[in-house]
């Protein structure tokens, strides 16, 4: 690791401290010192992971970055390269100009969004009435969460980017800033298709009158603006807009890829094509049920009920869908933590969700199973049951209003 990388990671640590300072929760010398020590530990852990190379990096990410270095950087955006969407390719094109090992640049980008992810999670806890200690606890819990550390600093994946942006969208909606919220969810979707596991919660926020229907028209506008630089550099416009449709085949045809989905339980299916179709229908039906329940009870929707609905969607949709991979519950990992800091009864759900995800991470990173994936699948079923119970309980508390907004 050279001096440039050391400086960059120190700047990211300073950003994390600045965000905590600006939040106003470091009100004592003890909290200042404790936060500095915890940040030092969080970033020290990430530095320890930086040199690790996975097969994903060796076979894909470094190949794509080398392509940009050999074909003129940003001008290479006119070529079809990789199976990530355009916004992530912007960063790879930028990295191609820097005299720093690609492995470090890719991981530093994800670590930057680890910080923003923790900040957004902390912000949602604040909007739900969490105390300063709860907000600080949420920030560091997210920063030290095993799947967060493993995903970016070790694996070199970018799930923290789209989930951080998705959480920012929820936070800014709660702040009554619908344009910023719609921009954030567009960016989230622009980075990873898996943002669709969280995006339906925007309908719940609309039911809460956080959005007007006209704000949804901003999504296609922002998306076109997002990919426009690549189009101006020579990428075909229609091909760029429909990139996700062309990438769906790259996720594989197997029903399960080290994922704690329902196919972790029903791993042996004779008619896989039929099972996949039924699973897709079940996922849409599940989403519809959650949204209908919220709509019918829209006058009773507290912010905590909205967050419970977001957890149900982020867990339930990928749980039912076929072809899911090990990292597809990353949003669920974070949202369950945020919900747990708003409703302590859901702390076991956050732990169970982390357990389920880690089984998939272990399978990939160690190339062997720690436990059968069905254990993770059953854990997520418990998460769904507990979260659904919380949602129904919140909806029955109409006479008390939004308790989480009280001091």
Give an overview in words.
Helix content is about 70%, strand content about 0%. The chain is mostly helical and about 400 residues long. A two-stranded parallel sheet has the order 1-2. Helix 8 (about 160-175) packs across helix 16 and helix 16 packs antiparallel against helix 17 (about 345-365). Mean pLDDT is about 95; it is low at about 400-405.
Structural class: mainly alpha
Portion in strands: under 5%
Q: Counting H and I runs of at least 4 residues, what is the number of helices? A: 18
* Largest beta-sheet details: 2 strands, parallel
Instruction: Please give the number of β-strands.
Output: 2
Global shape? globular
Q: Which stretches are low in confidence, meaning pLDDT under 50 for 5 or more residues running?
A: 399-407
The average pLDDT value, as a whole number, equals: 93
The order of strands across the largest sheet is: 1-2
Helix content: 55-70%
The run of helices and strands is: HHHHHHHHHHHHHEHHEHHH
> What's the end-to-end separation, in Å?
47 Å
Q: C-alpha Rg, in Å?
A: 21 Å
């Amino acid at each position: 690791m050279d001096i440039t990388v050391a400086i960059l990671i120190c700047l990211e640590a300073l950003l994390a401290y600045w965000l905590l300072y600006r939040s106003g929760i470091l009100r004592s010398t003890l909290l200042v010192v404790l936060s500095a020590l915890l940040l030092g530990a969080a970033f020290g852990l990430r530095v320890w992971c930086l040199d690790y190379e996975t097969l994903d990096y060796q076979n894909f990410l470094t190949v794509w970055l080398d392509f940009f270095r050999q074909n003129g950087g940003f001008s290479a955006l006119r070529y079809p390269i990789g199976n990530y969407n355009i916004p992530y390719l912007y960063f790879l094109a930028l990295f191609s100009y820097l005299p720093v090992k690609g492995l470090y640049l890719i991981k530093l980008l994800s670590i930057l969004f680890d910080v923003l992810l923790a900040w957004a999670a902390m912000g949602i806890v604040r909007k739900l009435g969490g105390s300063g200690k709860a907000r600080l606890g949420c920030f560091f819990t997210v920063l030290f969460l095993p799947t967060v550390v493993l995903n970016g600093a070790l694996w070199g994946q970018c799930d923290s980017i789209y989930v951080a942006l998705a959480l920012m969208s929820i936070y800014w909606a709660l702040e009554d800033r619908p344009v910023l919220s719609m921009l954030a969810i567009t960016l989230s979707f622009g980075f990873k298709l898996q943002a669709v596991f969280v995006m339906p919660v925007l309908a719940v926020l609309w039911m809460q009158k956080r959005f007007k229907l006209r704000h949804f028209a901003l999504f296609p506008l922002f998306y076109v603006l997002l990919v426009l630089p690549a189009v101006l550099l020579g990428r075909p416009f229609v091909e760029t807009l429909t990139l996700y449709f062309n990438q769906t085949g790259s996720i594989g045809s197997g029903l399960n890829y080290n994922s704690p989905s329902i196919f972790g339980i029903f791993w042996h299916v004779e008619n896989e094509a039929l099972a996949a179709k039924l699973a897709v229908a079940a996922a849409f039906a599940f989403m519809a049920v959650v949204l209908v329940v919220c709509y019918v009870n829209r006058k009773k929707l507290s912010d905590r009920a909205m967050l419970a609905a977001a957890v149900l969607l982020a867990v339930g949709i990928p749980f039912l869908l076929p072809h899911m991979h090990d990292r597809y519950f990353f949003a669920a990992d974070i949202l369950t933590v945020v919900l747990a800091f708003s409703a302590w009864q859901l702390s076991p759900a956050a732990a169970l969700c982390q357990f389920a995800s880690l089984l998939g991470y272990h399978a990939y990173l160690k190339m062997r199973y720690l436990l059968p994936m069905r254990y993770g699948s059953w854990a997520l079923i418990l998460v769904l049951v507990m979260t659904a119970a919380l949602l129904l309980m919140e909806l029955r508390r109409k006479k008390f209003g939004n308790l989480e907004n009280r001091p």
